[in-house]
Prior knowledge:
The complex is a heterodimer of chains A (about 280) and B (about 300). Helices cover about 80% and strands about 0% of the residues of chain A.
Amino acid sequence: MNWAQKRKMMRALNYALVVLVTLIVLFPVLWMVSSSLKTEADLFTLPPTLLPEPVSTEGYESALERPTFMVALSNSIVVAIGSTILTLIMTLHGAYALARVKFFGRDFFAKFILCFYMVPAILLVIPIYLIMRWMHLADSIIGVMIIHTVINIPFCLWLLRAFFLTVPSELEEAAIMDGASIIGAFYRIIIPISMPGVAAAGLFSFIASWSEFLLAYVLVTSNANKTLPVVLAEEIIGFEMRWQALLAMGVIVLIPIFFACLLFSRYLIEGLTTGAVKA
Amino acid sequence: MVAGAVSQAFSSRSARRGWIGFALFLPSLLLMLGFLFYPFALNVYTSFFSKHLIRPRNKFVGFDNYVYLFDRKYFWLVIENEIIWTVFSVFFQVVLGLAVALLLNQKLRGINIARAFVILPWVTPVVITVLMWKWILNELYGIINHILMGLGLIDSAISFWSSPAMAMGTLIAINVWWGFPFMTIIFLAGLKSIDPHLYEAAKVDGASPWQQFIFVTLPGLKHFIAVAVLVRTIWIFTFFDLIWIATKGGPSYHTTLLPHLTYLQAFQSYHLGRAAAISVILILCLVLYLIVFFRVYRHEEQA
Lengths: 279, 303
């Protein structure tokens, strides 16, 4: 075997290895998707078949007929979108101030944002529950939305500040010279330029809120206000797992995240890397 | 005169900018102080009181809550669980994260697609992670048991949640699957930052791929590994969701961590003082960890 052939072989092996590792990593997800499309009888047949044969939507039908699930689905959509919008409104302005405007204590705040980000949720659960109860927001989706906004603020502030710092300040100075206000310059110049950062921050907020379990679990007690992770967790913790519907629900919960993630994977990786490396 | 007027105009403008800046930042700051800093302080305060979640009982008891916990046998079991859970999870996440990062760092066509797919476990909600692993590991219908039996590795199906050691091992494995992509992403960024000339120089000196890894890759990644370990240790040590949804801390406290103990004391025993005391112990553990970590890290930097 000559050198070129050997090189080709190595390349093929390498490809095979990458594909194999990717498949192994994704196996639990693929298996859930495949299982969720089986008929109830096929789901519990031994030996299990790799692909659903015939493809059945029974699981999805029974998931969508479940009132608790449908309520949770709409709650989760409202909470995730609402808290993402709130987070972006807050942090776009806050981060711009941190990056550009000098004010008392700014550098101190900029440093301590990350400490806030590192505070584990479990330490906050009880006090937050008490505060929310005191504000009569404990068992409401508004309360959950506010709390998700709060826990997303530190990271997004910090991510967006890093993005704004990379925008040359001559751009706004020129606009301000031309008579634009600081705020005007921010809206018309900085935000459009920083779109990748805004997308990353929005994506983070959405995924974090969509997946958040502990705070929603503690705050919400009535079925009408539960979010998807809470409803699913209760089903899993419960005595009898109704696998077919549960697997279908799992796929439904994953779909928006996986699409967002694949579409924006570059931003996500970029954001994560800035998030962790510069810490 | 003119110069003075201009500078005056500028300074009044910068004073106004200062106010605007503060006003823009204020909402975020208030929310963070109200919901992040205040709770934190409240925890420390409450830990010295006997306080009930629903009844209006509130009595100063000094260190009684702490003493109560230290007297419980399960408290020390929980500390042991914490150490096993955190050390093994972090270790295997780093090893697997690094291996996959090295694999995905190659220049191959379409490698970006593989990178995008490999980070998917990390964005999968924990609830769904537990759901799909419970299905795969199901004693009767799980594909893992089926494969292992088909290969003749085991005679009868494994019950992954029954014994304490088995349950902890299974949980760590799930946690590694869920968390390693985070490491991979950090390490991919780290690998990009290593000067390619170093590898060329090493090759000229006749270094084998393994030697290149030991003497070029690992030192180049040192800072990234340190940051990743630091961040992940804190998260994994305080990780509530995965274990709670999978085992609720069972069998009988054998997979319980400090966060679960906090939850149980607060929302099942309604004993807020004790729950707050556990939180404070948890904070102290983290502070201790940070001190040791930075000592060692600084020492390494100087060496």
